Amino acid sequence: MGVRAKLARPTVFFFRYGLAAIFIVMGFVALAFAPPTARYEGFSMCVGSGLSILLLNFLFRMGARGDHDRDDEEAARDFYARNGHWPDEAPPADARRRRTPTA
Predict the structure, then answer these.
(1) Which residues of 29-60 are buried (b: 16+ CB within 10 A; e: fewer)?
(2) What angle do CA 82, 84, 86 make, to 5 degrees?
(3) What residue ranges are annotated as transmembrane (predicted)?
(4) What is the CB neighbour count within 10 angstroms for residue 66?
(5) For 13-51, what is each residue's pLDDT tens digit?
(6) pLDDT top residue among 88 and 32
(7) Separation CA 10–CA 68 (nearest Å)
(8) 2 versus 38: which is more confidently predicted?
(9) Is the N end or the C end of the chain the one with fewer CB atoms within 10 Å?
(10) Helix (H), strand (E), coil (C) string for the chain
(11) Predicted confidence band at 92 (pLDDT cuts at 50, 70, 90)?
């Protein structure tokens, strides 16, 4: 792992979870110490911001996982095209398997 990759891990972790945690904690601090006229607005703003950061991170990661699923499905289809059976199935008993001609 290179120096940039080692430095990127804590940075990414901070932006994924640390920033959201800071906003949520700031919301509770605002709830406890802000003047009564701005107490609930500050709490709502900060906690809402922190929760939205967490939600956007979750949705982005779900989308990225979908890309991996599509890549796995494409690899399975390529395997089927080459061998005539799916990767998780046993090969056919007969020796005459469908082969794709190579150019």
Answers:
(1) ebeeeeeeeeeeebbeebbebbeebbeeeeee
(2) 95
(3) 12-34, 40-60
(4) 10
(5) 898 899 999 999 999 999 999 999 999 999 999 999 999
(6) 32
(7) 24
(8) 38
(9) C
(10) CCHHHHHHHHHHHHHHHHHHHHHHHHHHHHHHHCCCCCHHHHHHHHHHHHHHHHHHHHHHHHHHHHHHHHHHHHHHHHHHHHHCCCCCCCCCCCCCCCCCCCC
(11) confident
pLDDT tens digits, 53-73 = 999 999 998 888 777 778 888
Q: Taking 70 as the threshold, does the pLDDT of residue 96 lie above it?
A: no
Which tokens go with 31?
């709830």
Looking up tokens 């906003």, which residue turns up?
23
Residue type, 61: R
C-alpha span between 23 and 52 (Å, rounded): 10
